[in-house]
Amino acid sequence: MRDASAERRSWLPVVWRVCHGLMAVFFALAAYVQINDPDAGLWMVGYGVPAALSVSVGLDPHVTEMLPWRRVADLHVMISSAAVAMLGWRLQGGGATDILQQEEGRELSGLVLTVVWFLLCRHSGRAPVGSLRVWAAVAITVFPFAAWFYYHLNQNLRSSWPPHCRTAL
After folding, report:
1. What's the DSSP call for residue 168?
2. Cα–Cα distance, 67 to 143 (Å, whole number)
């Protein structure tokens, strides 16, 4: 019985690292598609930082315990949380119903994703990652790719988007 548990546990760090690699790719793609956006620099940094930090965790999971990594991640979470509050207030005040059809809603969703990802990663290098954290990482990793794929397959969902959002990828 112990051998099966140990064998299952040996796969958890591999899945954890793969999730970080995939999220680094996603965040890098999210930074790239901002090239057509009027405020591209802001959003490229907003997605570039999570991409770089995800790469670092994918290469060395214990990096989350190093002070520079934690400070950069905490600063990003703090700034993103403030931006989420402002965008949420703007969307709520405007009476938005389908937030993914509005640019502010997509920006809010991306920021929430980065915040949740960093909170999941926080102190993950202290001990071997557990199955709950790994399964949460898998779910969070699959969601943005599935959503992006779905929105890019259905052209009618993108018809009301501004031109700079339709031409990136």
Report:
1. -
2. 30
Supply angle C-alpha 124, 128, 20, rounded to 5: 50
**Residues 6 or more apart from 151 whose CB is under 8 A from it?**
100, 157, 158
The candidate with the shortest Cα–Cα distance to 164, out of 46, 33, 48, is 33
Three-class DSSP category at 161: coil
* Choice among 13-17, 62-66, 94-98, 135-139 with the minimum mean pLDDT: 94-98
Q: Is-contact 165 157, C-beta < 8 A?
A: no
Find how far residue 155's CA is from the centre of its chain: 24
pLDDT tens for 51-83 read 999 999 999 999 999 999 999 999 999 999 999
Specify whether the CB–CB gap between 31 and 96 falls below 8 A.
no
pLDDT score, position 6? 55
Tally of CB atoms within 10 A around 165: 15
